[in-house]
Model the fold of this input.
Amino acid sequence: MKTYPVEIEQPGSQPKFYSAEYQVSQGARLQSDLERAWNYDLQARCLCQQGKKLPLYPRKSPKGYIICRYPDTGRDHAKDCTFYGVTNTQSGAADYSPGVIRLEDGVLKIRPLHGLTRRPPAEPAVEMPVERDKATNRKKYGRASELGVLHTIWEEFQVNQWWPRMQGKRSWFTIGRYLLEKSRMVKYGQSELSAALAILVPNCFGERARVFVEQAQAVFAGANKNKRRFLILCEMTRLTQVEGRPRCTIDGAWSNYQLDAYIPPELVESWVRRYPLAMNAIDTDHSHCIGLLIGEVQNPDKKGRVGAKILHGALMPVTRQFIPYDSSHEAKLANILVETSRAFSKPLRYDSEDDTTLPDFLLLDVRRGDEYPCEVFGMNTADYLARRQAKEAFYNSTRGMDGWWHWDAAADAESIPPLPGPGR
Ligand SMILES: [Zn+2]
Done:
């Protein structure tokens, strides 16, 4: 999310230096330099980490010449560097089989659990392919569910991070615009994500809504014409009970365009079981319930209304700043970190079930280049205490007693121990 200086090697002379300002402002001149680098196969390097030169390469894309990071180097970059990424990672994404999330020539390719080909309703449910890794005995997942895709988008494009400079700038509108742009660099199975994904930004009308409306119209028309399914990123709203069954809907209405989405009660009931925290975030003013849903067009666009049925989907609770959380204590801590102007990220689980090595939060401003783990221990069940002990032992052995922070929220939910101060 931050542009850092890069350099491009020059045959027979010193590398040429490009400041962040130059990269942002000098569109045409940068393009001709990148074209030359591409023609002569010159290497570029990112200078985001002090004392390191991280290799990059130029590439020709439909948007012009761009610079890409090499596969499996995403985590070497600074957390806020635009080249930071998840394809080689210590997050839950590490529990995917090789190739489920991969970077090829600057395009992030995802092998999804549910594809976008329309199938007969009677067809049996797709099962997640799972293997055991012989060396670590951990489960390896062969595809990414909608939750995995949602977490990939959030982490790859750094929406799971907060930096004090974002104060007052994050909203559904800014994130929607940003992800619309980024979706051009993602493939969902065989589909270009930008052709398959509509981002339904709530409470957005008039000229501000135009880019989202045009995108959604193109996505729904294309899905209807090509007999394909579509994806929507949206806010879930209006949680009610109808004849004893939970119902909710999508905030998908703009000035003169609307998606009328039918969500079957069975699907909502499965969300209540799988995503109780996300369901609790619906209709609150302290959180958002984000949905990534797959649907089919049932009634094509007539007078600005499209009818659709939702078939699959995952929900994710996020704070007002769009930081995901796994418990109400975590939401509280995330809000305190925002209020006290800290820089942090929220590691995400993806499809993984094993969270022994996944911190609840990472402070990014304690020591330069370090990610300082923060744990919120929120329960006292035997199972939970065993996992807590494993985590404590892991941190004490890898980082020492002072190298991580925890809050025993099960013992005292009110007073939060002092956090290590920002250093850098
Ligand atoms: Zn970098």
About this structure: Residues 4, 46, 48, 54, 77-78, 81, 83 surround zinc ion (CB under 6 Å). The longest strand covers residues 287-302. Residues 94-147 form one domain.
